[in-house]
Amino acid sequence: MKILVMGPPGAGKGSQSSRIVDDYKMPSISTGQMFRDAFNRGDEIGIEAMRFIKKGELVSDDITNEIVKRRLHEADAEDSFILDGYPRTVNQAKALDEMLDDKGTKLDAVINILSSHDVLFERMEQRRVCKQCGETYHLRFKKPEVDGVCDVCGGELYQRPDDTHESVERRLEIYETKTKPLLDYYSEQGILYSVNGMQPFDKVYADIVEILEDLS
Ligand code: AMP
Questions:
Q1: Architecture of domain 2-115+164-215 in CATH?
Q2: Where are the alpha helices (DSSP H) in the chain?
Q3: Among the atoms of ligand 1, which is closest to the Cα of residue 174?
Q4: Is the CB–ligand 1 distance for residue 8 below 6 Å?
Q5: Gap from CA of 30 to ligand 1 centroid (Å)
Q6: Does any ligand 1 atom lie closer than 6 A to the CB of residue 12?
Q7: Residue 216 has pLDDT above 80, yes or no
């Protein structure tokens, strides 16, 4: 299965994707996580990307398409993968279609997680992320067992620099103008499925599983 999880920032794309990864044993391709990892390693591409990420701006299509292209050529992404946070512009969606076409394949489904802006602000300001493995927490709804420490790997938890109020506002504005048009793009291809992301985490996941099971 080749699927894409979409939704505004803070809708739960990352958390839902990581559960799909665990249950379905498919690799996740998260451009945001790849940029953060590259930055933490001190790679040039990560340092360049972080200049935009910090302000809540999108990284250029060229850089983003290039890291996805390289990642799609790795052996574990041959048969199945879950894309999280890519594509985010119509140009990226077209580039992705070309990359997949070159490999003689295509996306099976696009899952869109819907949410209101109030809920998104609350979630992002309370979000903490593990510096080491990328696992996400919520200070009220998904607290780590020990404050500031990741339950999964013991890594240090931090607040993403783009989870500040100002940056979140900018990211939502960009989502509305640049990313939302993708919903029409995929709806026209007949592969768009929407779930209500304001339900409890497990219910959102159950709705996603129902879609995935119908596909297979
Ligand atoms: P995410 O972890 O998906 O919320 O992404 C964090 C940030 O990384 C975004 O706010 C963007 O600045 C950047 N980013 C991630 N994916 C993309 C993409 N597909 N295109 C451009 N910028 C991206």
A1: 3-Layer(aba) Sandwich (3.40)
A2: 13-24, 31-41, 44-53, 61-72, 90-102, 117-125, 165-174, 181-188, 201-215
A3: 10
A4: no
A5: 9
A6: no
A7: no
Nearest CA to ligand 1 atom 1: 32
- The string of pLDDT tens digits covering residues 51-65 is 999 888 999 999 999
Measured torsion, CA atoms of residues 47, 52, 58, 59, in degrees rounded to the nearest 10: -30
pLDDT tens figures, 65-124: 999 999 999 999 988 999 999 999 999 999 999 999 999 999 999 999 999 988 898 888
In 3D space, the residue among 64, 79, 82, 112 whose CA is nearest the CA of residue 18 turns out to be: 82
| Domain boundaries of the chain, sorted by first residue | 2-115+164-215
pTM of the model: 0.86
Which of the residues 13, 71, 123, 128 is marked catalytic? Answer: 13
Ligand 1: nearest atom to the Cα of 85:
3
Residue 52 Cα: closest atom of ligand 1: 12
